[in-house]
Amino acid sequence: MKVIILAGGLQSTISHEREGIPKPMVDIGGKPLLWHIMKHFSEYGLTEFIICGGYKVDMIKEYFMDFYIYDSDITVDLKNNTIEVHKKRTEDWKVTVVDTGLFSATGQRVSKIEKYVDGDFLVTYGDCLSDINIRLLVETHYHEKKLATIAMVKPSGREQLLPIDAEGKLDFSNAIRVENDHAWINGDCFVFSKKIFKYLMGNHDLEKELFGKLTELQQAATFKHYGFWTAIETRRDLVEAENLWNAGIAPWMKA
Fold first, then answer.
1. Distances in whole angstroms, Cα of residue 36 to Cα of each of 42, 89, 218
2. Measuring CA to CA, which of 81, 126, 235, 237 is 20 to 30 A from 195?
3. Nearest Cα to 8, choosing from 28, 34, 46?
4. What's the pLDDT tens digit per position in 197-249?
5. Are 148 and 219 in contact (CB under 8 A)?
6. pLDDT, position 207
7. Global pTM?
8. Average model confidence (pLDDT) for the chain?
9. For the chain, what is the HEC assignment?
10. Which one has a higher pLDDT value, 181 or 39?
């Protein structure tokens, strides 16, 4: 199963060191946020990725083109213009980077990579870290037999709540008032059937248009994740993630 990563938003403003870069390329422990996300999925045997780029997509392309150099020791012979790589270290990944446009909405970005997808697939955002059990998420998707399965996580207090009814199903038809103990938010990690592309016409967001349509058709399943989840949206979020990594207790990495 391929993993689609939405990495096309505008420039990051959360890193003082490297302003003007795509947010998925901000550093956490010397590695781009994008690498941390991909590493989590690869721990479940998922090694094929499609990156939906936009703002400065060339920076993402260059990172993967030179990936093995970043993680290896090298000797550069300036006179002869040669590079010798010592102890080459890399990842067993296959990465496709696609320019999906600067101002495309999330649904349109996914629709633009249809030709690279040959079956059901995962979609996640390029600014979220979690310890979501991807194996259980995918198993839930196949068990429910819906067009989409949406990972739900507990809110930190600043996110928009998902409208979940008494049976645990999505209900976008009415505004539902919930107490915090029963509140859930979109975890920005989804499993989609390949049939989903017929519903991705036009420049619209996954959450605003697609999920509402799928709930009307009773084609949206949910997966509750009770563990760690964070969106890297502010400088504070970045520092907290960096501290977890430096302490050797990053929840998104298996021990």
1. 10, 16, 34
2. 126
3. 34
4. 999 977 788 988 899 899 999 999 999 999 999 999 888 999 999 999 999 99
5. yes
6. 86
7. 0.86
8. 88
9. CEEEEEECCCECCCCCCCCCCEHHHCEECCEEHHHHHHHHHHCCCCCEEEEEECCCHHHHHHHHHCHHHHCCEEEEECCCCEEEEECCCCCCCEEEEEECCCCCCHHHHHHCCHHHCCCCEEEEECCEEECCCHHHHHHHHHHHCCCEEEEEECCCCCCCECCECCCCCECCCCCCCCCHHHCCEEEEEEEECHHHHHHCCCCCCHHHHHHHHHHHCCCEEEEEECCCEEECCCHHHHHHHHHHHHCCCCCCCCC
10. 39
CA dihedral 110, 115, 117, 122 (to 10 degrees): -10
Instruction: Determine contact, residues 147/219, Cβ cutoff 8 Å.
Output: yes
What is the distance of C-alpha 168 from the center of its chain? 24
pLDDT tens readout for residues 161-209: 555 565 666 665 554 444 455 688 999 999 999 999 999 977 788 988 8
Q: Are 42 and 93 in contact (CB under 8 A)?
A: yes
Residue 78 backbone dihedrals phi, psi, to 5 degrees: -65, -35
Place of tokens 């079956």: 119
In terms of residues, how long is the chain? 255
**What's the N-to-C CA distance of the chain in angstroms?**
24
* Cα distance between residue 233 and residue 189, in whole Å: 16
- Tell me the C-alpha distance between 99 and 65, whole Å: 15
Domains along the sequence of the chain with CATH: 2-150+186-205+220-246 (3.90.550.10)
